[in-house]
Amino acid sequence: MVRYRIDDGVTDALGYLVSLDATECTVRTRRGDVVVPLDRVEAAKEVPPPPAPRAPRQPAP
C-alpha cells in the first residue's frame, strides 16, 4: 500500500509493488498499474494478502 498526495488530499494505491527506482514506484492494483512519484509519497507499508474465500454454507439437514 502506498499513500500519496494528490491535488485535493491523499489517496492510496493498494496492490503489489512491481517497480521502484530513484524517482517513482509502480503499484499493480486491481484497476491497473499506478505510477507514483516518490516526492508525493506520504506513507507505504506491506499489507497481508486477503483471506481465502469461505466455503459455501451447507444447508442444515
Strand-helix topology:
Elements: E1 2-6, E2 9-13, E3 16-20, E4 24-29, E5 32-37, E6 41-44
Tell me briefly what this model is.
The protein is mostly beta strands and 61 residues long. It has strands at 2-6, 9-13, 16-20, 24-29, 32-37, 41-44.
Provide a descriptive summary of the structure in words.
This protein is mainly beta and 61 residues long. The protein has one domain. 0% of the residues lie in helices and 51% in strands. The chain has strands at 2-6, 9-13, 16-20, 24-29, 32-37, 41-44. A hairpin with a 2-residue loop joins strand 1 and strand 2 (9-13).
**Helix count, DSSP H or I runs of 4 or more residues:** 0
Bin the helical content.
under 10%
SS-based structural class?
mainly beta
Instruction: Look at the structure and give the mean pLDDT.
Output: 93
Distance between the termini: 44 Å
When the domains are counted, the total is 1
Spatial arrangement of strands, main beta sheet: 2-1-6
Given the C-alpha coordinates, what overall shape results?
Answer: elongated
Q: Count the strands?
A: 6
- How large is the share of residues in beta strands? over 45%
Supply Rg. Answer: 17 Å
Tell me the major beta sheet.
Answer: 3 strands, antiparallel
Regions with pLDDT < 50 over 5+ consecutive residues?
none
**N-to-C SSE string, H for helix and E for strand:** EEEEEE
